[in-house]
């Protein structure tokens, strides 16, 4: 059974989300001490975290950083804030998705289910993919080039795997969004751009420039 940790200070929202997830057979942990989130995280070892942005003591961005320092567990932000900068900040800090309040519970459950399925299914793979002397290790979500390595986030992993399965072919932005988020209509277009650019930077820092090329108005390609 997958464990979900909810970090939400609105008791009503927290209870409704917890009840809904429990009905879908998820094990739920509800955080109530908002200055001890990491203690609860360590104790419960969740498979996914639902994290509000506006919290007492420290905000959700702070706790996202703390979690990312020790774990790659999927994180979905829940927030009434809808500025593009909030979404970009969340993704840059390592979040996997951003859901704006008020949200449809069915949509939230679908996102949780898809994220768990993709994250933990991909972790079971033990293959390698290679192109232009870059080795992509699927078993531990990392890339290697000329002796240097970089770890990838879940979204970066999926983008690179999709691209490397289609070397020499243009992969549209819509296709990538569909792979990443089955209900892509709820995702700001900037979110994909942030993820692709972050992946490009990691590969470039290894010494391999222009590995993923943008084809304006069409999508991306690895040649």
TrEMBL record:
GO terms for cellular component: cytosol; protein-DNA complex. It comes from the Bacteria. One of its GO terms (molecular function) is transcription cis-regulatory region binding. The lineage of its organism: Bacteria, Bacillati, Bacillota, Bacilli, Bacillales. One of its GO terms (biological process) is regulation of DNA-templated transcription. Residues 124-223 form the OmpR/PhoB-type domain. InterPro entries: CheY-like_superfamily, OmpR/PhoB-type_DNA-bd, Sig_transdc_resp-reg_receiver, WalR-like, WH-like_DNA-bd_sf. This is Sensory transduction protein BceR.
């Amino acid at each position: 059974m997958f464990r979900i940790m909810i970090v939400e200070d609105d008791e009503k929202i927290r209870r409704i989300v917890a009840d809904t997830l429990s009905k879908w057979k998820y094990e739920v942990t509800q955080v109530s001490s908002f200055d001890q989130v990491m203690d609860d995280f360590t104790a419960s070892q969740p498979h996914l975290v639902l994290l509000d942005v506006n919290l007492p003591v420290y905000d959700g961005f702070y706790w996202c950083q703390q979690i990312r320092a020790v774990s790659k567990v999927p994180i979905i932000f829940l927030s009434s804030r809808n500025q593009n900068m909030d979404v970009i900040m969340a993704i840059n800090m390592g979040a996997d998705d951003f859901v704006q309040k008020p949200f449809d519970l069915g949509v939230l459950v679908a996102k949780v289910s898809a994220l768990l399925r993709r994250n933990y299914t991909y972790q079971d793979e033990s293959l390698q993919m290679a192109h232009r002397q870059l080795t992509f290790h699927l078993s531990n979500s990392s890339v290697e080039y000329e002796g240097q390595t970089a770890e990838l986030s879940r979204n970066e992993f999926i983008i690179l795997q999709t691209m490397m399965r289609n070397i020499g072919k243009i992969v549209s932005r819509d296709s990538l969004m569909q792979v990443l988020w089955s209900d892509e209509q709820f995702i700001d277009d900037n979110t994909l751009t942030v993820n692709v650019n972050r992946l490009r930077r990691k590969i470039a820092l290894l010494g391999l420039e222009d590995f993923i090329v943008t084809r304006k108005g069409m999508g991306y390609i690895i040649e």
